[in-house]
């Protein structure tokens, strides 16, 4: 519901309704008696709009009710004039008399001399020549160059249009479409699909040229997916034009702090009152005025529905061209200034407070026995690539490491960024369809191939994706582990990531494992292995995750070396592979090494040495007998003591038994996945202790005697499973909280005008792969 006209607003103001803002003006309602003589008067009671500069929080307020009286009500006897007023009246009379006297004298003079006043009966040619000489503008034709002048004269504004409905989101700037999403869906739950355009669409424009600096869409209908949206807002520079378009269902998982931030950020009226299913849009200047804001509401949400489509058209004045930052005038910063005036979302890199940016010369030295290039696979998120480059150039070895940016598609921003940073980049003409598993898979394949092709002397490469945060010893870690790939062909690759890297299961930064896991989130391979992989890589018609495909078809029993404490951290919400659910509940909790000088021990990681090491560990380990529920009793000390073994009932990785889930949940480990094991034995560094969790009868390391089987092999009941599920809420409950506002009917005009006619519904629930019946549910 749109707020009414001035008359309605003033009536509401007198009833106690406060309107917190009117764009650029202060509104004052004044009561005027009948016939009062000042501009825009009329008979009867009238309200007058007084426009004043906005200096404080604007409001509607009643003015004086008896400031004026009509002349008909004035008593002439009581009317007095000051001496100054009488003097001004006399002066006006004298001026009129003097003017008439001059006209009479000039007329008599012309008559005495025999002259006449000019008339229309003069010589036509003379009159025509005089008319031409006067250069009448009404007959001047346009010149060819005037078309450009007209464009300049009419280019002082930027026209912005926003349209959204149940299946469409569209933004136009000066008639050109800059964002468009139509009739697309994404899988949000196992049996549920939702429109892709649900969330918040963002367009950032240059205030002088109107050019698009960046665009983005954020699936804020998923838990924690609002975080990258707020991070993006914080990365923008002041003075940019911000366009926000939010079809319904975008607020459910945004907490109050994020809504308060957004409300203050844009200075909006309605954004904190939007309900489920309602459309909202806003256009404003960052750290400046809000030019437009609109909402379409639902009369009643008792039945599933959506509000009417929303359409906003606003004309925004362009800002004068000027140097935004002092360092723009530095000739050495010319390229960076040009880049920062062309693209947005780079935060400190383009901040006026950052006079100098990082370079490879700033990286500390690192002793290297070989060159190991890094390839960063990316598409449209160059600001994240910039973050990785900065992390690489501030750690040991970054200055001597070759970096290749592999771009999916012809991205002009990626090209300009690579040129600015002095980096090599390749661009993939990817034939696979957008937003598909196949496209991602083919681009990883392309990146590996190009990295070795462009670095013919390199025997190894490190593969990165742009949504990763790197530890300060990232480069050093791979150079320390590189000899393993040369010494042992049963090692498939070196990983930087550990799925069980949680506190307290990830403590020792020097410890490494051999596991049958996925190559993911930063991994190193040899040229020899790459040649094997590329030939067998999944084709475009095989719609599979490339990492799972490699594990199932190509890895063939070879192990991957993983660190106990991860060297990368995944930071992405609501992406193609990682939903907001998983990011918030698991990936956000994983540990990342913070020690730039961390050393790793590789002495026991070749195949034979590792088996000998495990044999010694298991022989000397303390075997745990689970009599009470593992969530109710601490079986392992919270300080480093030694090694422990616990057996659980498990046949193979994908069986439906829930013993592993029940047990590992109580240890705060990764209960959702069972792929990170060594012959179906899982290793955790629980508070510095080595904990070996062995599946029986499935694991090679299950050496339990028959008479001890029922006593030592943990096989929980369904009640035990329920207990673990309850315990699990301690660390995932706050991440699965939903708060919904629903519009309701109201008889109060106040509630309807101020959008207070809603109710709040809140709930907390768990995301789990295993239900109370022990079956897989997600």
Which segments are poorly predicted (pLDDT under 50) over 5 or more consecutive residues?
1-92, 115-121, 149-153
Largest sheet: 8 strands, mixed
Query: What's the tally of helices?
Result: 19
What's the gyration radius in Å? Answer: 37 Å
| Proportion of strand residues | 15-25%
**What's the total number of strands?**
33
Distance linking N and C termini: 40 Å
Q: What is the helix content?
A: 25-40%
Strand order, main sheet: write it out. 19-18-17-20-24-22-25-23
- Rounded mean pLDDT is 80
Tell me the overall shape: globular
Secondary-structure-based class equals alpha/beta
Can you walk me through this structure?
By secondary structure, the chain is of the alpha/beta class. The protein has 19 helices and 33 strands. Strand 29 (681-686) and strand 30 (689-697) form a beta hairpin. It starts with 5 loop residues before the first helix and ends in a 14-residue tail after the last strand.
Topology of this protein?
Elements: H1 6-14, E1 25-26, E2 28-32, E3 46-49, E4 52-53, E5 61-62, H2 83-113, H3 124-133, H4 146-153, E6 157-164, E7 168-173, E8 176-182, E9 185-189, E10 192-195, E11 200-205, E12 212-218, H5 226-235, E13 241-246, H6 256-266, E14 279-285, E15 290-296, E16 310-317, H7 334-340, E17 374-378, H8 382-392, E18 403-408, H9 412-421, E19 424-428, H10 437-454, E20 460-465, E21 468-470, H11 474-487, E22 491-495, E23 512-515, E24 523-526, H12 527-536, H13 546-554, E25 559-563, E26 568-570, H14 580-585, H15 607-620, E27 622-623, E28 643-650, H16 659-666, E29 681-686, E30 689-697, H17 709-712, E31 713-714, H18 718-732, E32 737-743, H19 749-753, E33 758-764
Parallel strand pairs: 2-5, 17-18, 17-20, 18-19, 22-25, 27-28, 28-30, 28-31
Antiparallel strand pairs: 1-4, 2-3, 6-7, 6-16, 7-8, 9-10, 11-12, 11-13, 13-14, 14-15, 20-24, 21-26, 22-24, 23-25, 29-30, 32-33
Helix pairs in contact: 16-18
């Amino acid at each position: 519901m749109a707020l009414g006209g001035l008359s309605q607003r003033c009536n509401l103001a007198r009833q106690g309704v406060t309107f917190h803002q009117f764009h650029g003006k202060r509104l004052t309602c004044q009561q005027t008696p009948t016939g009062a003589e000042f501009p825009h008067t009329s008979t009867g009671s009238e309200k007058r709009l007084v426009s004043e500069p906005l200096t404080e929080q604007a409001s509607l307020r009643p003015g004086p009710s008896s400031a004026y009286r009509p002349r008909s009500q004035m008593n002439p006897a009581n009317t007095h004039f000051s001496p100054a007023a009488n003097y001004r009246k006399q002066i006006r009379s004298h001026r009129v008399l003097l003017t008439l006297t001059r006209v009479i004298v000039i007329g008599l003079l012309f008559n005495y001399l025999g002259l006449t006043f000019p008339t229309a009966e003069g010589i036509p040619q003379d009159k025509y020549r005089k008319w031409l000489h006067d250069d009448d503008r009404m007959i001047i034709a346009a010149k060819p160059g005037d078309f450009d002048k007209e464009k300049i004269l009419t280019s002082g504004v930027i026209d912005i249009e926003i349209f959204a409905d149940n299946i469409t989101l569209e933004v136009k700037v000066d008639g050109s479409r800059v964002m468009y999403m139509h009739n697309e869906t994404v899988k949000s739950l196992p049996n549920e699909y939702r429109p892709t355009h649900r969330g918040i669409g963002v367009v950032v424009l240059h205030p002088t040229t109107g050019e698009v600096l960046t665009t983005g869409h954020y699936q804020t209908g998923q838990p924690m997916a609002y975080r990258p949206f707020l991070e993006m807002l914080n990365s923008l520079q002041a003075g940019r034009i911000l366009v926000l378009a939010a079809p319904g269902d975008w607020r459910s998982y945004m907490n109050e702090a994020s809504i308060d931030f957004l409300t203050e950020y844009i200075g909006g009226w309605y954004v904190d009152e939007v309900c489920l299913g309602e459309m909202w849009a806003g256009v404003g200047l960052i750290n400046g005025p809000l030019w437009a804001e609109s909402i379409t509401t639902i009369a009643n949400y008792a039945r599933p529905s959506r509000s009417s489509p929303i359409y906003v058209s606003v004309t925004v004045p362009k800002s004068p061209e000027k140097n935004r930052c002092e360092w723009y005038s530095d000739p050495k910063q010319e390229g960076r200034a040009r880049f920062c005036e062309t693209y947005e979302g780079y935060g400190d890199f383009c901040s006026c407070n950052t006079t100098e940016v990082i370079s490879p010369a700033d990286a500390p030295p690192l002793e290297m026995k070989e060159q190991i290039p890094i390839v960063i696979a990316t598409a449209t998120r160059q600001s994240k690539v910039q973050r990785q480059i900065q992390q690489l150039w501030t750690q040991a070895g970054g200055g001597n490491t070759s970096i290749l940016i592999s771009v999916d598609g012809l991205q002009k921003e990626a090209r300009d960024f690579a040129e600015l940073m002095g980096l090599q980049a390749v661009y993939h003409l990817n034939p696979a369809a957008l937003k598909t598993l196949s496209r991602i898979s083919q681009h990883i394949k392309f990146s590996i191939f190009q990295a070795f092709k462009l670095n013919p002397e390199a025997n190894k490469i490190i593969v990165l994706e742009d949504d990763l945060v790197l530890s300060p010893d990232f480069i050093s870690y791979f150079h320390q582990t590189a000899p393993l790939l040369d010494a042992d062909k049963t090692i498939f690759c070196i990983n930087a990531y550990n799925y069980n890297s949680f506190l307290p299961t990830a403590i020792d930064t020097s410890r490494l494992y051999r596991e049958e896991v996925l190559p993911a989130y930063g991994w190193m391979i040899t040229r020899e292995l790459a040649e094997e992989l590329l030939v067998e890589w999944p084709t475009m018609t095989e719609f599979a995750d490339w990492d799972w495909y490699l594990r199932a078809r190509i890895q063939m029993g070879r192990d991957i070396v993983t660190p106990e404490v991860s060297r990368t951290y995944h930071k992405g919400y609501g992406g193609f592979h990682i939903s907001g659910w998983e990011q918030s509940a698991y990936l956000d909790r994983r540990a990342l090494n913070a020690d730039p000088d961390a050393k790793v021990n590789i002495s026991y990681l070749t195949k034979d040495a590792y088996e000998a090491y495990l044999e010694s560990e298991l022989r000397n380990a303390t075997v745990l007998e689970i009599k009470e529920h593992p969530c109710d009793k601490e079986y392992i000390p919270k300080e480093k003591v030694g090694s422990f073994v616990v057996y659980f009932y498990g046949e193979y990785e994908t069986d439906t038994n829930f013993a592993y889930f029940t047990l590992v949940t109580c240890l705060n480990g990764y209960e959702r996945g069972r792929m990170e094991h060594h012959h179906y034995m899982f290793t955790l560094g629980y508070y510095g202790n080595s904990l070996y969790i062995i599946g029986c009868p499935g694991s090679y390391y299950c050496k339990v005697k028959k008479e001890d089987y029922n006593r030592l092999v943990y096989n929980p009941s369904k009640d035990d499973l329920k207990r673990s599920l309850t315990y699990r809420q301690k660390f995932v409950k706050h991440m699965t909280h939903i708060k919904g506002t629903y519009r309701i009917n109201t008889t109060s005009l106040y509630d309807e005008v101020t959008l207070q006619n809603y109710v709040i519904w809140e709930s907390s629930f768990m995301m789990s792969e295993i239900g109370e019946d022990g079956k897989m549910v997600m």
